[in-house]
Amino acid sequence: xxxxxxxxxxxxxxxxxxxxxxxxxxxxxxxxxxxxxxxxxxxxxxxxxxxxxxxxxxxxxxxxxxxxxxxxxxxxxxxxxxxxxxxxxxxxxxxxxxxxxxxxxxxxxxxxxxxxxxxxxxxxxxxxxxxxxxxxxxxxxxxxxxxxxxxxxxxxxxxxxxxxxxxxxxxxxxxxxxxxxxxxxxxxxxxxxxxxxxxxxxxxxxxxxxxxxxxxxxxxxxxxxxxxxxxxxxxxxxxxxxxxxxxxxxxxxxxxxxxxxxxxxxxxxxxxxxxxxxxxxxxxxxxxxxxxxxxxxxxxxxxxxxxxxxxxxxxxxxxxxxxxxxxxxxxxxxxxxxxxxxxxxxxxxxxxxxxxxxxxxxxxxxxxxxxxxxxxxxxxxxxxxxxxxxxxxxxxxxxxxxxxxxxxxxxxxxxxxxxxxxxxxxxxxxxxxxxxxxxxxxxxxxxxxxxxxxxxxxxxxxxxxxxxxxxxxxxxxxxxxxxxxxxxxxxxxxxxxxxxxxxxxxxxxxxxxxxxxxxxxxxxxxxxxxxxxxxxxxxxxxxxxxxxxxxxxxxxxxxxxxxxxxxxxxxxxxxxxxxxxxxxxxxxxxxxxxxxxxxxxxxxxxxxxxxxxxxxxxxxxxxxxxxxxxxxxxxxxxxxxxxxxxxxxxxxxxxxxxxxxxxxxxxxxxxxxxxxxxxxxxxxxxxxxxxxxxxxxxxxxxxxxxxxxxxxxxxxxxxxxxxxxxxxxxxxxxxxxxxxxxxxxxxxxxxxxxxxxxxxxxxxxxxxxxxxxxxxxxxxxxxxxxxxxxxxxxxxxxxxxxxxxxxxxxxxxxxxxxxxxxxxxxxxxxxxxxxxxxxxxxxxxxxxxxxxxxxxxxxxxxxxxxxxxxxxxxxxxxxxxxxxxxxxxxxxxxxxxxxxxxxxxxxxxxxxxxxxxxxxxxxxxxxxxxxxxxx
Length: 935
Fold this sequence. Notes:
globular; 6-stranded parallel sheet; 8-stranded mixed sheet; alpha/beta; single chain; Rossmann fold
């Protein structure tokens, strides 16, 4: 680094305060100007932006303020720093660089060194410092008289200027600037929060010729009040603007193509932890992140997704969460002859991690990054190491292996793939997001938020709202499936009438960072009037407390509770405690933005009429096969959103059956159907003591497949849906895969003998082992046990014997309990053996050569490689209803990152429905993956 020194605090300060010397540097400008190191030249749009900024700066307007509008990946930070170097800093100005998170401060601070050579004489040194409440940064009291540039958080500066007693070091910095103070407001679309408007006005009052530029990708607002505030802060308005579309056409930015891959993994996020977490506004809890990172089947799915799409994805950056996850994914890729490497900085803070911490050295990391840059590696797996501050070359694809609530983090990861052909990138960038199953409503950061927010997509945040509706529908369905009374009300009441999009800035608990939060608030029939009255009431309410992004959660809840009691029906059935959180979110929005959130109607609600379909089924007396065929056609209709709402056909069909049973009850005069106007009988949950007894009795394994996992589920043999109770004899332990496949079917895996009197016509094979583990024995043992137990509709399998070497490696044997005829499997065994061999061959594994099924007192049956499959009529048909991992990725829609591009909303001649389907992408049923051997 070109510097006189990296200014160090006295030893006692550095040691005791934990301050990093990296965040204060005194640059030698004489040396910087002489340096022949490679200097980056601005792109064409950046040169135009610099010209516009210099012309504005030369005019010295009063008051002085304008906006630089560049899309994500357009180089806002670089352009602003280069302007500061050639303009204000060359004129002797002091600079305050304001941002709402420490990440943005560090990013700008790191980039400063690339522009200092442009600072003209007579200035010969420049001293820059990072100031925030973040550990490792300097505090306001450490600011020194000779500091020239302060990269400081809004919160720190606001507190220093408004608290009593005043912070003298900040005062001296501003006074020392005299009439030469220049302010950069990063992410300026957060500027109109009232407290920060006051901050800018305070600075202007103390430095009358103060210059101000705001950096943003989102210069416009739909609310007139916010437009007025923006003009008040930045009176010259937009100084330069370019759209993402323009930069894509110029090959400067790649066109991002977003897609999702559903993992089918559910995190163990209990209700109590969720309630605590949702108030903190933090990203997902660390224990949940670790839990997901440890799931080897999940890591295998991530690796396999790349392997099956290798040609399409090309050079890929994979963002993981833990060092051991990095290593696992890398090893899985290398075993499939993918050139991959892992880089990470930290592996934990405990002493036991010290040896592992040394394993990955800075030399190794630098070497791996260099190889990736030079094309020697196809995949680079990392733990957030490459989100910022690292000169990473172009990547054609980014894997985001875990959803995040942080728009900042999402932007950083997506940005790594946005380099266009002119800068060594590609025309299109694949952004693959891995989506887990969540039973709680979580407002994850959305792709549409990156440059403007959900209400700017032309359809009122439709894709985000559909995601929230889907979670709510499935949660309600699962609750009803576990209760005696399904479908307590018409299906239409389960769909919202619309939603509000609320946007706020909140303080992240435990840090000084502000996080922009954009969330959908679903509004249902029984709450619509309440929300309307609430918004009307809040318009005249003093909401100054909610203006504060750091308002404690308990104080917010205490203030909002009276509104809940006044405007909403406490007896109405709801799932979870989102209502109070939604009220708080609306109050924050109105306090910080000065206007009510916009309401968007769910115009397609009436098209999704399950009650009408159920009524048609009863009137036309559909048989089981006809019913199933019609429902599948309905589920896959291109002009409906069933796939996006229910994700899986099994959920959709279960909801239909619930609606049908409700209509039958009315038809048969079984009494009044409970509606939302009446209290719904509570479901008696299984006690923790009973759960413990069941797991202990069942020896801590899944009775269907035999796997032993830490989070077994207690299943009702006879579902509560049809009257099953919580008695011990009606309970069994299943893994999540088996429990989801069982659904609301009565299956007793505690019973070792089948109740069937004739063989089933088909062998349903649920979920082949993931490709990465097909060379191991245990996954195949579980596979055979699950498949045969499902076939006999009981816990028929006594043992599965697969050797790791020798004779047992090539000749697999399954022994059944007594009175489970092996002969029933004979028509299917040859085809099953062939499919197993083909699946193993994909991973370059041999065997088995034979598969034998035996049972005491019965003739065993064997299928051998080379046997002619037994003829039967009709010939066995292999029906694959599984989606290979490649098709587990939803067809992504292109989301232009940037503002000012093609107008949001339907194109000319395109219906709203067609536009929305394109926004959502194709819904794909992916779980449970199954293969059916059909007779």
